[in-house]
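Practice set, problem 2.
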Amino acid sequence: MTSSRLNIADRLTQTAQRVPHQRAVVFPHGLDSCGRTAYTHLTFAQLDDESNHLAAGLQRMGIKPGTRLVLFVRPSLEFITLTFALFKVGAVIVLIDPGMGMKHVFHCLETVDPDGFVAIPTVHLASIWSRKRFPRVKYRVVVGQRGFGFGPTYSDLLAADASSFRTVATTARDPAAIIFTSGSTGPAKGVLYEHGMFWAQVDMLQACYQFQPGEIDLPGFPLFALFNSALGVTTVIPPMDPTRPAQADPKKLIDTMYDQGVTTSFGSPAIWNRVGRYCESQGVKLPKSLKRVISAGAPVPLDVLERMSRAFDNDDAEMFTPYGATESLPIASISHCEILDETAILSRQGKGTCVGRPLPGVNIKVIPITDGPVATAEDIVELPVGEIGELIVQGAMVTREYFRHPEGTAMAKIREGDLVWHRMGDVGYIDEEGRLWFCGRKSHRVETENGRMFSIPCEAIFNNHPRVFRSALVGVGAKPHQRPVLVIEPEANAWPGSKEAERKFCDELLALGREVPHTAVIETILFHRSLPVDVRHNVKISREQLALWAEKNLC
């Protein structure tokens, strides 16, 4: 496999040959004269052809295999055609979430030391102002109406003669992309993806969710269009800012589903929280065409699953919650039916969040928790069924390293010959039925004099209170003598308006905690208007930041 040709862009070409006239990408393009949403689109044949022209133009610029190019383009037809064009010439695409803030974006860019930018004009301008930080930049492509003198435009590349262009014959081990983690639990790191890893992801998604030719997806994460194009699924770009899923307009999303006959939709739990609540408050149902919703990025709260199950108008529709990370995805998956019928009651009792069974070809082990490196597989000690430990995973989609970050690679990877195990940075266990249970981030565990406490099992107890929107367990002080503190974000309009109301709320919560052994030691509760969350999915609680906030508020 490592020596044979394997370019992820070949999957697009295969799809274009199989269903040339099927719509590949659909983009909302403003309103027509009657106020209706107007759409523009590319078929698979057009997408493949347009990306060939762009790739030919890139080659004429001097782009060669291995050239690192930062892609900073808003979700659009151009974003997807450029992604495949860059794959076709063998360039390494650098993708950074702009939602993490300019300071962090520039830090990531310096780490990569790019050869060029394929971006909107404002990004080019910012990089030119900071040119000393990017000494290798040689190539610039401007995506916009005018080039502003920065370099050739998208339209310029599109005019290139592609009659003799052929996709570069990369192999499975050749680099394809550097995708940065969200930085929600530490500095963002560039995950080095190889073509074979993308190929494996496509195969695993198909095997897990059985996408059918002609399906239509509304993905809340732009890069999911890559998988869609490889699967023969039409991508409808949603009317939302993908860097702010918690602010997505549920009505616009639902209207788009009806407009386009959407059959599947991928997004953060923050999106489905808004959609489910909107459907409940407005008496709205999701279209009958919708048969599958996929939610990833963080555990999906049970109330979100319950609302979404009631919002489906298709009796056979299912909501899936795959488990994984930027470094390794997908790993496991479970449907809302299995959760609500079998595992929800255990989650509410503080047993963790069930994320399903490992996908075919994925190996998962639970090992003792350690904060140091694990050099080789010979050092792995596997824990018995039911015991909480650190999760490690191995499979064809598991990435091998962080780009130019040997310390991070040494901490996160375990070598076994040519194979690599990835340390998820999560804790959990495997039950007697072979299902994986997630109990939180390893770094979020609280070490007290009474023992170790894990975030998800503890928070679940207090999330049962009807006026709690979400909660976060944090530790104040030094390990192993931390003080466990529970930070509560009440539901909208449930904020305690007086000291007396706050005491009553606290008493009710402490009473819930005393009913379960692993939360009985929690004696301190604080209230927070809006818990800080990650920039990518808007649902991962920044417990490190909260711990500092809690310490200040307890002084």
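Problem 2, part (b): a different protein.
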Amino acid sequence: MPSLLKCGLVAAAVVSTHVFGQTSGQLREWAHAYYEWKAQDDPVQASDSGLHTWDNRLKDYSPAAMAKRRQYVADLLARVRALNTAAWSKDDGIDAILFRAELERPAFEARVLQPEETDPLVYVNECSNAIFSLLKKDYAPPRERALAAEARMSAMPALLAQADANLTRPVRLYAQLAMESARSIDPLFTTSLATLAADLDADQRRAFEQARDSALHAIHAFADRLESRLASMPPFKPMGVENYEYFLRHLYLLPVDSTQLDMLGQAELARYRGLEALIPNPDMANPNPARSASIPRDQQQFLSAYESRLRDILQFLKREDLITIPSYIGAFRIRQLPEAFKPTSPGGFMNPPGVYDRDNSGFFFIPTYSPDSQNFYIRAAIEEPRPILGHEGIPGHFLQISIANHLENEIRRHHDDGVFVEGWALYTEEMLLRRGFYASGSAAEGQILRLSRYRAARVGVDVNLHTGRWTFDQAVDYFMRAGGLDRESATGEAAGAASNPTQKMTYITGKYQIMRLLGQYRDRKGRQFSLKHFHDDLLRNGSLPLSVQAWILLDDRSDLDRASRD
């Protein structure tokens, strides 16, 4: 990687008023400078992505820094929008479209969502991720990571004081989620972080503990201040139809509006509710540990048993020759979800290798085990862990993102289209079922149908929450009534949908697009069709919008043209 001094000079040139030649080489210079600027500007995210140059820093949320950040993105986006790519090659034109879509996200957040002013979770998540990103992997000696953690914790009181000043229009729902996360954060800073402090000398340990205690005091005090302001906060603030549809078309490059997207969700919900009813015992769609031959005794046995089932999937994929698994794919581990992340991630989350990561391993963080838990994901993991394991691991997220991280094309390597990423993982669940990996009428089949059912319900929740048609309580009720979830999972799902606009609709939307593309690909290939070739062709392009994938694989840009119409 070029020096950051050089990066700063290039980045400064990007936002200057000089006119550059409109070439693909210039585009790649701008993109490279942007990725380096972004990593330095957001050190916690850089740590999470495997770049540990700034592990002792937090993001700067001062008004001056935020204004400079927004201006940088706005100026660069204006330049990319102004490019005349008519004479460029197909590949170069695609890269210009991708880079513009990537820049649209921070520009949209600054213009519409303004999370620094409305969402206290921004600041609590900065604190939790600042520590979590140092703990996940043994990328450096414990002492070095402990000192980085100390520096970050020392900066947290000032960060949260800045948050108080920035949060001029906080939203009550976001504040409540932030309070819950803040009040669950202690084990991350104490039990988990203590594993790094063993090699500190007495003075260093004293400074470390003082920084930790001050940080926790500041985080709890921040939650208390939020609670004192709750009554004056609006319950929720949707972005509205116009903004939602701008997001769909310009960030995801989707050729649909909000009404069409809602209809897709309803159609898929009806299909999977019906398919549940058609299995011999529809109750199999509701995970029940009592049907399991063996219930784990404790957390460690639960995690070990969960992780071991990946071997079954790998053997099937190889035996049936369904996809290429490159030799560089690393180990995939199951870990306990820190309580601080539970409010908005009730089912846990996947942590793949980062785009800068030298360590090729990945993790799935699942909620704390309890044999009596009513949480859907725990019950599913006890009875039949393989559908969720395949979604998160191989052939799902872990495999797909690992492959994307190895692309030579920098723009495509960094592109992270959520509709494709989540659509692919959901598609693989049913792909394995249809290819015979799971028995008909089994708990696995029932679970796969229920997983698709509630992901279809996510579409309706996402669209209707953020266009302003539904309240949060209506969203929870819909997840329970239509999606088939328990109240705990439904509340967490609704919270995740509210706090991360458009993320929840990506699963079914992406799966639908992949299934559509699969049929078109088969028709195009005829007798030469191979499911393995389709999977390999799809994954070798990276995490790209499906409208772009259709242009690459089928030379059909009609979806992309529809998405691009203003």
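Answer key, part (b): Residues 242-510 form one domain. The first strand starts at residue 332 and ends at 336.
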